[in-house]
Amino acid sequence: MIDKNKTKILLIDDNPKNLQIAMNILSSEGYKLIYAKDSEKGLYLAQNDDFDLILLDVLMPGIDGYTICTKLKNNPKTQDIPIIFLTVKDEEQDIIKGFECGGVDYVTKPFQVAVLLKRVETHLTLAQQTKKLKQLNQDLNRQVHDQVEKIRLKDQILFQQSKMVSMGEMIANIAHQWRQPLTAISAALVGIKTKVHLKKFDLKTEEGSKAFEDYLTKKFDDIQEYIDTLSTTVDDFRYFFRPKKDKEHFELQHIVDKSIKLLEEGIDMSSIKIIKEIEPITMIGLKNELSQVLINLLKNAYDAFENKSNQNAKEIKIKAANIDKTIHIYIQDNAGGIDTEVLPKIFEPYFTTKHQSNGTGLGLYMVSEIIQKHMKGHIYVENISYTIDNLTYKGVQFHIEIQGGV
Questions:
Q1: At 405, phi and psi to the nearest 5?
Q2: Containing domain of residue 213, as a range?
Q3: Rounded to whole angstroms, how far apart are CA atoms 6 and 51?
Q4: What SS3 state is found at 380?
Q5: 154 shares its domain with 227
Q6: What's 182-242 look like in SS3?
Q7: At 84, is the secondary structure helix, strand, or coil?
Q8: Same domain, 215 and 352
Q9: Pairing of the two strands 391-403 and 378-388
Q10: b/e map of 44-71 (b: 16 or more CB within 10 Å)?
Q11: What pTM, to 2 d.p., does this model score?
Q12: CA 253-256-259 angle, 5° bins
């Protein structure tokens, strides 16, 4: 959520009336506002203070809004500040020019209260998430640097490589989770632009203006929901990379569901049925480490079906039980099993049953390291017979035993 009291917005407009209207609208919502009545002062303020958003008039004496925007985008100090143009010009070429200069949006005069507030809120939220991502990137770079130094000092190159591979797989999965909301945001914005360009609403009438306002409010609400989804994913990502991993209480069912969700689109597209037979289990342990293990094992089962496109029944079964405070987790599939000659080697580093371009062999090695060294547990693998609708298939079963049941 945006802390409006800590949000600073710069208004640059040579028309006192427009300034007053915009300030009344935004200040009533609790935003901190600073204004400039001419372009030179506005440019000076933008370059010598810290702002979260700039509302910029296009047509002003001296330096016009497009030129100010270009100057700000060429300045490293101000290049990341979102700029919304305030304009009476709604021709397509003017709108495009604003975007080419670096503007993120535009609001036409006279202002519609709901539209102005929604656009300001949306771009402040997007800017906030961008800052989080930049900070996250810096944190990750710093952690990678620190880890490299530790590797040199402690001679743990192999394990650290496996951890980096796991991080890469997690990043890829989270990026995959971002595609749908980002696509939806893009589609919503294109829809708004198309409506404006084709003049679908008669803004000269009260009925048309109301319909346009309702349409925009609905679209911005949708966009906000998509942004919230992205924000939640970022928060999960930040937690995953915390260097200190304390044990905590959690429900095993929640961790299983969360792990499946990261892979569900690929699983659905491959017509793989997921079966869960999980007792209600409360655990004390490293939930993100366990999630990492489950994601690797589920991904391994999913990949095993890659060359089974003609197989009618495809299932991955997850079972779990708490027996005398020892948690038993089973992940089974009916994808054909593993060659008995290589089965004993699959937890070795750099050993892989996948094609060279598709696997490094570090995934299952890392799973074994986490279970045995971090969780003081055990992991076993065996080929099994798997029956579906009276037909018998070959498959694989991974069995995890860890302490931590409540």
A1: -70, 145
A2: 146-244
A3: 10
A4: strand
A5: yes
A6: HHHHHHHHHHHHHHHHCCCCCCCCHHHHHHHHHHHHHHHHHHHHHHHHHHHHHHHHHHHCC
A7: strand
A8: no
A9: antiparallel
A10: ebbeeeebbbbbbbbebeebebbebbeb
A11: 0.45
A12: 150
Same domain flag for 180 and 260? no
Q: What angle (nearest 5°) sits at the alpha carbon of residue 120, between those of residues 99 and 105?
A: 10
3-class state of residue 145 by DSSP = helix
Residue 119 identity: R
Tokens matching residue 366: 């890392």
Among the candidates 244, 269, 293, a domain finishes at: 244
Q: Residue 364 and residue 376: Cα distance in Å, rounded?
A: 16
65: left (phi over 0), alpha (psi -120 to 50) or beta: alpha
What are the pLDDT tens digits along the chain (406 aa)? 677 878 899 999 988 888 899 899 988 888 899 999 998 999 999 999 999 999 999 888 888 999 999 999 999 999 999 999 988 776 678 778 888 889 988 888 888 888 889 988 888 888 888 888 888 888 888 888 887 777 666 655 666 665 666 666 566 556 655 665 676 677 778 878 787 777 777 767 778 778 878 888 888 887 887 777 676 656 555 554 555 567 888 899 998 987 787 666 567 667 888 999 999 999 888 887 788 788 888 888 888 887 777 778 889 999 999 998 899 999 999 988 888 888 888 888 656 665 433 444 456 877 888 888 878 899 999 999 988 888 888 999 999 999 877 6
